[in-house]
Amino acid sequence: MTSRLRPPWIIALVTLLAAALGVVPAAGRGVARAADAPYKDPSLPVATRVDDLLSRMSLDDKAGQMTQADRGALTTVSDVAAYRLGSILSGGGSAPSSNTPSSWADMYDNFQRQALSTPLAIPMIYGIDAVHGHNNVVGATIFPHNIGLGATRDPDLVERVGRATAEEVSGTGIDWTFAPCLCVARNDRWGRTYESFSEDPQLVTQMTTIVDGFQKAGNASILATAKHYVGDGGTTGGRDQGNTELSEADLRAIHLAPFKAAVQRGVGSVMVSYSSWNGARMHGNKYLITDVLKGELGFKGFVVTDWAGIDQLDGQTGFTANEITTAINAGVDMVMVPNDYKKFISLLKQEVQAGRIPTSRIDDANRRILTKKFELGLFEKPLTDRSYTSTVGSAAHRAVAREAVRKSLVLLKNAGNVLPLAKTGGKIFVAGKSADDIGNQSGGWTISWQGSSGNITTGTTILQGIRDLVGSGAQVTYNRDGSGIDSSYRAAVAVVGETPYAEGQGDRTGSMGLDSTDLATLQRLKASGVPLVVVLVSGRPLDIAGQLDQWNALVAAWLPGTEGRGVADMLFGDSAPSGRLPMTWPRSADQEPINDGDGKDALFKYGYGLDYTVPPPQSPPASPSPSPSPSPSPSPSSSPSASPPAGGCLVTYRTNDWGGGYTADITITNRSSSAVNGWRLQWTYAGNQKITGYWNAVVTQSGQQVTASNASYNGTIGANGGTASFGFQGTYSGANATPAAFTLNGAACAVG
Ligand code: BGC
Ligand code: BGC
């Protein structure tokens, strides 16, 4: 290479000139020195590359790395290069004018080429809220919102959801998702309750497998964000961006716990919460950001603010130099400005030059950001990997979403076993404002920030799912408001609930009941005398106690996303309901906040959910059993008197293995003619498997002997084919063989 022979001072001069002019240095000139630089060498350790790169960076470069602007705020694309922007984001609904996967990829590459044109050619990292699939992109697969994923109790499935999302995100070039929300929603009035996997920190912790789904997706891996740190779901009154008034012990037990798990999984970034803790804004909280997160928990990634989060520190609109200094010195590494990035950079530099922000803090922030960029492979593969573009909305991903929908549904009432509905014969009436509305069933953060009703993206509505499933087997009549029903129908399915909302606008301070449109629809259906099945599409439990006795069946469908067929599958028995409540269901709105273990008389307690094979109780379950607040664990309720199933049982044991680790899904089928009340499943491993975590059961291990006892909510396994499922994760070396034999309450089971 001729450039190697060029005297260094010429190269330096050209580099300086190019930087000053903001022009693209042609190959063989300014970049030549960088091309030989250690930081460009992928064979060197990341830390060495970071050190080398950092030693070459000016304050302009470093300030730029810490700046994140919204794509829509850029005055011109070349500002990415001129201001050395380290990151760009799309806020909710911030999309290229042609909202197709390849336009997104083109837009991304265009920004990236600007970043690569700078002397050091540091790639930018692009972030987006892919919070239930790649939800800003028309045609992407929209998965159930987190509340539904929490109901599945299936960490392996949730990891697969993360991986599918990562592939779709990668196919549009984007490197980073602002997900998962590890919020532990303690008050359903909060408009972000649906972004929470559960009110129970343990369940939220189990669902951090989604971080692995995002970050361990092979070439499609993207950076995950644990948000919003910390206490966002604990605000007084459930007010968005409000004040979380808790002792430090409670803050740690309820809200910090899931972040600990995410850090252990190597989550790449953490987003600070808008909320305050005991009156102090989180964006300025050095103790929690630096001492606890980075120190105590050992977080090695970078901390990003929320959208204009620093602006709120002094209670005045806009940001000041002082607010920048407070946030950066508290431990923030990157600021989601998102609009006036020019002013931000100039104030940040001014604060460093004046010594109010130590250079060591700036270097630490850059080190953290650059480490993640190197680890992601951005320096080697800065542009979109178009081999993933066709996965956006692919059949394979929609199949994962449909599975997630099926497993997220919680059957809350099934009087007279009206469900499942027969697929053939007679007529079925479908009604309700959310029966044929892809926007309603997807909720907020879909195509636009707040989401909207209507035909906003590609997918299958619940009505369409029913029609596809039933085919010509039965007549399906649809009328949105229920008009036209008469007694000739064998069942009415009403799909009602909430219309889309997101942060702020979704807070409900007053009633939490159904709206007048829904009540009128339900009234019409009820008046016909036809058995009424209610499918509730909502971001949280609603106040329905006043209507429940008029309904024959109730299914909580949460916000299922684009794969409405999954709802039909369960209504018609192609899948069995297996979801369990991730939130306590209040008897009335004035019980809020209501959470497991607080002694309040819930309508349906945390963890409740019926199976098809278990006869429903006469009335909804009584008050929750008192258990210690705030983090009750599933307690085994199998009694010593639990008897073995006469006539047998079947156990299926499936594992998902990776180098040294695995998750296992176990289903017990009761083949006897009486229900099993309280169960204990035991087996002995031939290998050296070691169980490290579990869900939907309490699993203990002594040597190679394992005992799994039912959780409080799945102790009954119905007669003649009823099932109970649970899972766990563990480690092994050598082979991870399936155990040869299982006993259920002492009796041998068949292995399937
Ligand atoms: C939300 C975050 C989101 C960010 C970027 C904020 O208003 O609180 O959850 O990641 O905007 O869209
Ligand atoms: C953006 C969102 C952001 C919100 C913050 C909206 O304009 O689209 O992404 O979370 O502002 O208030």
UniProtKB/TrEMBL annotation:
Transmembrane segments: none annotated. Pfam families: CBM_2, Glyco_hydro_3, Glyco_hydro_3_C. Residues 642-752 form the CBM2 domain. Residues 614-650 are annotated as: Disordered. Coiled coil: none annotated. Its EC number is 3.2.1.21. It comes from the Bacteria. It catalyses: Hydrolysis of terminal, non-reducing beta-D-glucosyl residues with release of beta-D-glucose. The keyword Signal applies. Residues 614-637 have a biased composition (Pro residues). Keywords: Glycosidase, Hydrolase, Signal. It is an enzyme of class 3 (hydrolase). SUPFAM superfamilies: (Trans)glycosidases, Beta-D-glucan exohydrolase, C-terminal domain, Carbohydrate-binding domain. Belongs to the glycosyl hydrolase 3 family. This is beta-glucosidase. It comes from Microbispora amethystogenes. The lineage of its organism: Bacteria, Bacillati, Actinomycetota, Actinomycetes, Streptosporangiales.
